[in-house]
Design a protein that fits this description.
This protein is mainly α and 166 residues long.
């Protein structure tokens, strides 16, 4: 990932830039910077697309395949309690992985014709800020006390709404 990012940055900085130097994005992302280039960047954008597909799909595929193997092993377990603990752990891990890689794939693998700056900003904010903030919450849901407190809170919220509707 580091090598890929460095190569992309170096190539991106070699394009001629003219006009506005304002990026319509939250951070200095390569596709957003390329919008400012005065040269034809279509070949380079295609190469970036291929790199993004590889850099996202390969790790996601390996992670998914390993969890599939874990799932098969868990299903063979005789202990119901052990199976439940394993499912709780794996489901929280896969939730975080899916949130991160799913948002990144939407950003970088979606065809250029379907991109809008507004959507790109929202999705990139999601995988760079929201997903890391959700991480501790998702992992803490494995804790019985936290799960119980959340159910209690949600029960109060639904009870309060039911009273307000009457």
């Amino acid at each position: 990932g580091l090598v890929d990012g460095l190569i992309q940055a170096v190539f991106t900085l070699h394009f001629p830039y003219c006009g506005s130097n304002k990026i319509d994005h939250f951070f200095c992302d390569v596709p957003a910077v390329l919008k400012l280039a005065c040269a034809d960047t279509s070949l380079y954008e295609s190469m970036i697309y291929v790199c993004c597909v590889l850099m996202l799909l390969l790790p996601f595929s390996v992670i998914s395949a390993s969890y599939l193997r874990i799932l098969v092993a868990v299903l063979r377990m005789h202990s119901t309690e052990g199976r439940q603990k394993a499912f709780a752990t794996c489901s929280s891990h896969m939730t975080v992985v899916t949130l991160f890689y799913g948002a990144a794939m939407i950003t970088y693998i979606r065809p250029q014709a379907y991109h809008s700056f507004k959507q790109d900003k929202v999705v990139s904010a999601f995988y760079t800020m929201i997903t890391p903030m959700l991480n501790p919450i998702i992992y803490s849901l494995r804790n019985k006390e936290v799960t119980g407190a959340l159910k209690k809170l949600l029960g109060r919220c639904s009870y309060g709404r039911a009273q307000n509707n009457n």
